[in-house]
Design brief:
Layout (H helix, E strand, L loop, with lengths): L2 H13 L6 H8 L3 E6 L2 E6 L2 H7 L3 H12 L4 E6 H16 L25 H12 L8 E4 L6 H15 L5 E5 H12 L3 H12 L3 E5 L8 H16 L3 E6 L11 H7 L3 E4 L5 H14 L5 E2 L1 H10 L4 H17 L5 E2 L1 H7 L1 H4 L8 H12 L3 H5 L5 H18 L3 H7 L5 H17 L1 H16 L1
Parallel strand pairs: 2-3, 4-7, 4-8, 5-6, 6-7, 9-10
Antiparallel strand pairs: 1-2
Helix pairs in contact: 1-4, 6-7, 8-9, 9-10, 12-13, 12-14, 13-22, 17-19, 19-21, 20-21, 21-22
Length: 448
């Protein structure tokens, strides 16, 4: 909901409120305009200081109305139209007075709104949003690490976009390590003044984000310059954000003083995507790429599991499916047969058509029981657990009906299957370790 829509709803509620005088409403409320300044900060623009005095008693009512529609509290103030105009003028002057940097600046497509949050990345996501909202106030530096393709660059670019949009008075720069090294090499071929000028240029920024910091390792001269800049940002409470494929403790080739400073702020990781997050990302990418065909449950789960180690691979696989779909518009559904054909050049060994026996074999191996035992009537703990989990996985991955599953497990009735599935779901909700075991087994089943 944008501020215009929000203000219309608030005016509707104020128009019927007993505490709002009709004259006050007509003269001061209807002519006011709500403006969103920041993520949780709103100003109500009114005609004059006198108007502010008249409607100030309504401030609590307006704030409560905003909370009702948005679901959370916000910072709220009154401001005259003249004050707002002057503030905007000063802001434009500040932005215009910034020196032009030789570093390329651009708008990135990565935003917090199109980042899929899940168990594997929620801490890094939350920390990044906090930094973007209040750069330089806490966590200097923010250090995000994890394997390639899990969303580190997305978060850094989202911070950059958010700060440049909401706080244009701050000088903000996003750099790859490669571009930083290139600039350092350029100035090292020049004189001392060029090096000092380069350091001063970087130190003039308020927010500096460097992607793939690990590539600065073993670059002695670059490390020296970087250390000077690093110190300047920390001493002046200016924001630094780094990404790396390794945690600070595992970074080799950096001066110990730099490693120590990495640890001064907040270090957070992005792990390999959990199954649920991978599914959400896969679904989102299918929607973005506008695939017209439906995608079967098994095919969706396969893609989410097989490519969970790299979001770029998920996007690449969906692009391949999208291209195939354009050429085969008569096909209504993309199922595992289509997936097997499309990705046979990737790894045919991993793309066997899923079946119930495979599920039972893999679960049985985990619990040390045979497929025959899973299909039988024995109720010892290991066999019962393997049977229940196998039923759950057949329903979850293969999307078989309850009666079908009962038949596939030695003629069990559908009530037995329901109880088994519910038991596994409850365990997953209360036991994180068990949930991890289930996800590992899913991965095995879908990649065998």
């Amino acid at each position: 909901m944008n501020e215009t829509e929000l203000w219309l709803k608030i005016k509707e509620s104020l128009s019927t409120s007993e505490i709002v005088d009709e004259e006050v409403y007509n003269d001061y409320i209807t002519t006011a305009k709500l403006i969103k300044n920041d993520q949780d900060e709103y100003n109500l623009i009114v005609k004059s200081q006198f108007a502010i005095r008249v409607i100030t008693p309504l401030k609590d009512v307006i704030v409560k109305a905003i909370k009702k529609h948005l679901g959370h509290l916000v910072i709220f103030n009154f401001i005259t139209a003249a004050q707002y105009k002057e503030n905007q003028k000063q802001l434009k002057e500040v932005v215009a007075s910034k020196p032009v940097s030789p570093f390329a600046t651009k708008k990135y497509s990565a935003m917090f709104e199109n980042f899929i949050e899940g168990e594997s990345n929620k801490q890094a996501f939350l920390a990044s949003k906090m930094i973007a909202h209040n750069p330089g106030k806490q966590y200097i530096p923010l250090f995000i690490y994890g394997d390639s393709g899990l969303g580190k660059t997305h978060l850094l670019q989202a911070i950059y976009n958010e700060v440049t949009d909401k706080k244009p008075e701050l000088k903000t720069l996003f750099l790859t390590s490669e571009s930083l090294i290139k600039r350092v090499v350029d100035v090292l071929y020049k004189d001392h003044d060029a090096i000092e000028s380069f350091k001063e240029e970087l130190m003039s920024y308020d927010v500096l984000l460097i992607d793939d910091i690990q590539f600065l390792a073993k670059k002695e001269k670059t490390n020296e310059i970087f250390f000077t800049i690093f110190n300047h940002f920390i001493e002046n409470n200016k924001q630094l954000v780094f990404s790396s494929d390794k945690s600070p403790d595992n970074l080799n080739g950096f001066d110990k003083r730099i490693i120590t400073r990495f640890d001064m702020g907040l270090t957070t990781s992005i792990k390999t995507l959990d199954f649920e997050t991978a599914v959400l990302i896969t679904k989102a990418e299918i929607k973005i790429q506008g695939i017209r065909q439906s995608i079967s449950y098994e095919a969706l789960n396969y893609l989410a599991t097989y490519y969970a180690d790299d979001v770029r691979k998920i996007k690449g696989s969906i692009s391949k499916i999208s291209f195939w779909g354009i050429q085969n518009e008569v096909v209504k559904e993309i199922d595992m047969d289509v997936i097997s054909t499309l990705f046979k050049d990737v790894s045919t060994a991993n793309l066997g058509i899923l079946n119930v026996k495979k599920v039972k074999e893999i679960v049985g191996e985990k619990y040390g029981v045979s497929v025959k035992s899973i299909d039988g009537k024995a109720r010892t703990a290991n066999i019962a657990n393997a049977r229940h989990l196998s039923m759950y996985l057949v329903k979850n991955i293969l999307n078989h009906s309850l009666s079908q599953i009962g038949t596939e497990f030695g003629g069990k009735d559908h009530t037995t299957v329901i109880n088994a599935v519910n038991k596994i779901e409850n365990l997953m909700n209360t036991d994180k370790n068990f949930k991890l075991v289930v996800e590992v087994l899913k991965t095995k089943i879908l990649s065998k």
